[in-house]
Amino acid sequence: MPGGRSIQFGGSFKAMLLLLIFSLCFRGQPAGQPADTIRSLSREDAVRIATENNLKVRNARLRARRAGAMQGSAESFRPTRFNYFRGQIHSPANRGMFTISQSIQFPLVTYYQNKSLKERHQLRQKQVESTRREIARDTKIAYNHWVFLHHKSQLLHRKLQIYKNFQRIAHLRSQQGATTRVEKTTADTKLYKAQNAIHQVYQNIARAENRLSSIMNTQHQLLPQSDTLKIYRIDYTPAKSPDQLISPLTRQRHQKKIRIQDFRIKARKADLFPDITAGYFNQTISGHDNLDGWHVGLSLPLWFGPQKSRIRQAQINKQIAQNTLQQKITQQQTKIQNLSRQLNHLREQLSYYHNQALKKASLLAETSKKRYKSQDISYSQYMESLETAYGIRKDYLRTIKSYNKTAIRLEFYIH
Known about the structure:
The chain is an alpha+beta fold. The chain has a single domain (about 5-415), classed as Outer membrane efflux proteins (OEP). Helix content is about 65%, strand content about 15%. It has eight helices and eight strands; from the N terminus they run βαβααββααββαββαα. It has helices at about 15-25, 45-55, 55-70, 105-175, 180-215, 250-270, 305-375, 380-415, and strands spanning about 5, 40, 80-85, 95-105, 220-225, 230, 275-285, 290-300. The model is unreliable at about 1-20 and about 25-35 (pLDDT under 50).
């Protein structure tokens, strides 16, 4: 694969400064916010900041903490019951009796409920990592698009400079009577369109920066650390079996969901066992004070229908979790296969650009420029050659962007 190659279109410091000023004006300043600072940003920096600051990641961490706090919250003991009786108890005289009793849920119910809560906590921790990976993927894609637009602006500046030179030559030739008014007017129109195109790409850069800042949850004004668009490196080896076509994290998350349903089924079944009750009493009868004793008992459900229904519900939920895992595997197999084919196709396109098209574009632009100056070709031939060379460079830049986006998406599914 064409790893490590890059495209660099150059551009002046003045152009980058104008771009920054336009971005500041277009983006605006939220009310109540301090003045933004300019921050030079690499892709790695953007990913690091986003996976720490993004609100979705923060909420995922809070849900994990909440699930951790719930561990051990399954109660074995029912509320303790205290009773005091006063009246004719076992005799005509008014006497007093005090009782205390405690019901205990069958221990297996609590055991399996706590097991389920522990698995749920681990699931939430897996979901934190999953959310971080999703945000990292979105950040990389947004950063890739943002840098693509910066590079497009550099390409448009080169095109603009060519049209400025062309306009100058056309005006000189017009003054000398060597060209028609149509050629001069066309040169002015081409220059105007190029200036509008740059203005439009500046607006797109501002929107892309806002999108990236939103993911990162930052108010800094951003500039890319490098003006070189590098081909994204991805470590990918085709899977030997279909089961390998799913990220380990995704598989682990869904297996946790299945285990949670397993423990819920066992807890529902354990609910069929009786609760245990124990108690103590103290009373006075016929002048005998402090007569006491204890008692034990079992609480048996007389109707098992509702509990059996809950067991069936839990069993169905487990089947749903199993089917969801299989569905995820099938979906990701399809996505990975499609992305792999697309990546191979884009890799072939990049090889073509590196080996042939870019060289031809440079040669075409230089040759046509010299021949136009020497009046060996007409205006229309010169413009056609320039547009062809520009189109090749623009398509190459778009191909890099598409390749990087595809590689980032593929990386998300396989790691």
